[in-house]
Design brief:
Blueprint lengths: L30 H8 L15 E2 L41 E3 L2 E3 L9 E8 L21 E3 L7 E7 L4 E9 L9 E3 L1 H7 L6 E9 L17 E2 L21 E8 L2 H18 L13 E6 L2 E9 L2 H15 L4 E4 L1
Parallel strand pairs: 1-10, 4-8, 5-7
Antiparallel strand pairs: 2-3, 2-11, 4-9, 5-8, 6-7, 6-9, 11-13, 11-14, 12-13
Length: about 325
C-alpha cells in the first residue's frame, strides 16, 4: 500500500517466525544492472456479514483492529478480479529507490515475472491512503503491492494450498519485510482463503493484456471474521518540515520522488504509533520522523538522537516493526 504497503504497503505485521522466501525476484541484467550500480549507497474483500465469527489475531500480516470494518460490502465474492489491460508506466513509481539500506530497481515494463513466496495483506489502517500510483488504496478492490513489479501491472496470484487464484492490479510498493513477496488487498486475501492466518505461501505470475482472469469463489474452509470497531476515516499524517539539527539519525528510505517519500513516511508513522507502549521508549517515536531533501533524493530520517546508544535502541524498535534494521548516519 508504498503498502502499502508502501500504499507503500510497508509494515503490515510483526515478524513471521519460520517463514522464508522460497524463490527470489529475477536478477536484473543489462541496463537494469547498471541502474543498481548507480543507485544511492545505503547512507524497506468476504461473503459473510461483518460482525460474526472469528477474533483476529496479531501477527502474520494483520492486527486485531485491521479488519474489514463495519462498512464492508455484503458479498465480497461478487467483486470481480482485475482485467489486464495495456496501461502506460507510471512516471514516478517505477524509479529506483532505497528502503532500510536495500536498493530496489523496478522491473522494466516488458519483463516477465514468476515467483513463489509469502503473501500478507493490508486492511483498513491503509484504506483511503495514497498508493505509490497516486490512487487511494481500496481494501475492497482487487489490487496488490510489490517492491519491483511495474506500476501498473497485472498478476495472477495462486494459493497452492487450496488451488484458488485471483487476478490483481499492482498499484503500490511494498512489502519491505525480508520474508514477504507481495501484499494483497483484503478482498484478494479473503478470496484466496488466508484472511484468518494473515499470510500464506503463494505463486505470483505476471499477466499481459488479453490474459484470461481467474474468477474466485468463497473458500469453504474460511469462517466469517469479527470486526471490533467501525472502519475509521483516514487521517492524513502531517509531513514534518526538514530540520537541520545535528546528531545521529536513522535513515529509513531514499526516494527520487517526494510524494513516494511522503507516502512511505506516513505508513511508518502509523506503524510506530501502533507499536507504541505508553511511558516506554516506543512512545512518540513517530514525531521524530522527517524528510531531508538534497539534489534529486528525498530521504526519510528518524531523529536526531543525542547518543549512539539512543540511536541503537531506536534501531532495534524499527527492526522489530519492519524486520530490517535502518541505516545509522551522523550529521
Amino acid at each position: 500500500m508504498t503498502r502499502s504497503s508502501l500504499p507503500l504497503a510497508l509494515i503490515t505485521s510483526a515478524s513471521l517466525a519460520g517463514c522464508a522466501l522460497l524463490s527470489s525476484e529475477p536478477s536484473p541484467s543489462g541496463d537494469d544492472a547498471e541502474k543498481i550500480a548507480v543507485s544511492p549507497a545505503p547512507t524497506s474483500r468476504f461473503s459473510a456479514k461483518p460482525g460474526a465469527g472469528v477474533v483476529q489475531k496479531r501477527g502474520g500480516g494483520y492486527y486485531l483492529d485491521d479488519g474489514p470494518g463495519d462498512s464492508a460490502p455484503p458479498d465480497l465474492d461478487r467483486i470481480p478480479d482485475a482485467q489486464p489491460i495495456n496501461e502506460p508506466a507510471h512516471r514516478f513509481a517505477n524509479k529506483p529507490y532505497n528502503v532500510f539500506g536495500r536498493d530496489y530497481v523496478p522491473l522494466p515494463p516488458t519483463a516477465d515475472y514468476k515467483a513463489r513466496g509469502i503473501a500478507s495483506w493490508y486492511g483498513r489502517k491503509f484504506h483511503g491512503q495514497k498508493t505509490s500510483s497516486g490512487e487511494p488504496y481500496d481494501m475492497y478492490g482487487m489490487t496488490a503491492a510489490h517492491p519491483t513489479l511495474p506500476i501498473p501491472s497485472y498478476v495472477r496470484v495462486t494459493n497452492p494450498a487450496n488451488g484458488r487464484a485471483v487476478v490483481l492490479r499492482v498499484n503500490d510498493r511494498g512489502p519491505f519485510h525480508s520474508d514477504r513477496l507481495i501484499d494483497l488487498s483484503y478482498t484478494a486475501a479473503w478470496k484466496l482463503g488466508y484472511i484468518n492466518e494473515g499470510s500464506t505461501l503463494v505463486e505470483v505470475e505476471r499477466l499481459r493484456a488479453g490474459s484470461s482472469a481467474t474468477v474466485a469463489t468463497k473458500p469453504d474452509n474460511v469462517p466469517p471474521v469479527t470486526v471490533a470497531a467501525a472502519n475509521p476515516a483516514p487521517i492524513p499524517t502531517p509531513i514534518p518540515t526538514q530540520r537541520d539539527e545535528s546528531g545521529t539519525y536513522l535513515q529509513l528510505g531514499a526516494f527520487s520522488n517526494r510524494e513516494n517519500a511522503e507516502s512511505f513516511l506516513a505508513h511508518v508513522a502509523r506503524e510506530l504509533a501502533r507499536e507504541a507502549v505508553p511511558g516506554s521508549a516506543t512512545e512518540g517515536l513517530e514525531s521524530k520522523l522527517l524528510i531531508r531533501s538534497s539534489g534529486i533524493w528525498h530521504r526519510v530520517h528518524l531523529g536526531p538522537w543525542a547518543s549512539a546508544d539512543a540511536a541503537r535502541a531506536a534501531s532495534a524498535i524499527l527492526q522489530r516493526v519492519a524486520g530490517t534494521p535502518p541505516v545509522v548516519i551522523n550529521r
